[in-house]
Structure formats: structure tokens, C-alpha cells
């Protein structure tokens, strides 16, 4: 919470749902919805991704993501970064094809200001500004977007 925001980032650490809503609406306006991944089912195993839908039609949009932080009390690190796409998708068991989760993912389109040592670049063998980086929103974290 103490670090300076990255270029284009707006951030706030909040300790209540009311403060989270206030921050999200200050960035996105009053017509917002919170989206989150339902559970951890499918983690660390092969899955099938189905029924993908892009928020705002899959176009670049604004969002506010809030991540749980480890403090002696519940604290959320909320931030908005420019140039993202947000998606929702069903996660299916690869054998039975049964739905086991409903996930929310965010794609960071502009990674040019990220550190070359960022874990995503290390894992993918790339660097700042060369690729977009997408990741799931964890269970109990959330991404606020304008309501479709």
C-alpha cells in the first residue's frame, strides 16, 4: 500500500466495503458491478475454458481490481490501470466436461512500464511492452467494471 503508483495507475487501500465502493465509483462512475472468480476449482490442473464473454464487448475498458492484502486485519489493495480487457469464462473439467468454476480474467494490454523481472515475463520469456499479460482474478479478489 505504501509504494508509489505505477504510471497511469490510480490506487487506494481500503478496509471496508463502503470504501471499496466509493473508490470504484470514483474511477468508473455509479453504474458498476463487481466480478469475481467463484472458487479455486480447476487450479493447478488441466481444464477446458468455455463460454468466454468479453466485458464491454471485449474492448479495452476501465476497471478497478481489489486484491486481499495480508495485514493484521482485512485490507484490500484496489487499483485501476490503463488499457485492460476483462473477460468471464466457464471452467470445465477436461474429462467430464462438467462446469467446475466461473472465472474472471483481466488482460493488461500495455506492459511497457512493468519491470523486466516481473514474474509474467520470467515465466513467458518476454519483456516489457512485448506482450500483453492476462491472469485470473483470484477467488475473494474482485474486479469492478461498468455494468454492461
UniProtKB/TrEMBL annotation:
InterPro entries: BURP_dom, PG-associated_BURP. GO terms for cellular component: apoplast. It is found in: Secreted, Cell wall; Secreted, Extracellular space, Apoplast. Its main location: secreted. This is BURP domain-containing protein. It comes from the Eukaryota. It holds the Pfam family BURP. Keywords: Apoplast, Cell wall, Glycoprotein, Secreted, Signal. It comes from Citrus sinensis. Residues 1-147 form the BURP domain. PROSITE patterns: BURP.
Amino acid at each position: 500500500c505504501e509504494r508509489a503508483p505505477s504510471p497511469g495507475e490510480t490506487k487506494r487501500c481500503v478496509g471496508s466495503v463502503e470504501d471499496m465502493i466509493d473508490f470504484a465509483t470514483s474511477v468508473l462512475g455509479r453504474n458498476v458491478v463487481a466480478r469475481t472468480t467463484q472458487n479455486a476449482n480447476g487450479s493447478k490442473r488441466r481444464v477446458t475454458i468455455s463460454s468466454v464473454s468479453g466485458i464491454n464487448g471485449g474492448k479495452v475498458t476501465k476497471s478497478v481490481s481489489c486484491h486481499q492484502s495480508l495485514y493484521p486485519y482485512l485490507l484490500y489493495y484496489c487499483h485501476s490501470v490503463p488499457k485492460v480487457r476483462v473477460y468471464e469464462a466457464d471452467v470445465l473439467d477436461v474429462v467430464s466436461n462438467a462446469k467446475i468454476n466461473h472465472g474472471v480474467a483481466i488482460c493488461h494490454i500495455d506492459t511497457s512500464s512493468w519491470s523486466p523481472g516481473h514474474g509474467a515475463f520470467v515465466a513467458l520469456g518476454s519483456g516489457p511492452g512485448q506482450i500483453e499479460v492476462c491472469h485470473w482474478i483470484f477467488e475473494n479478489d474482485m474486479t469492478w467494471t461498468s455494468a454492461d
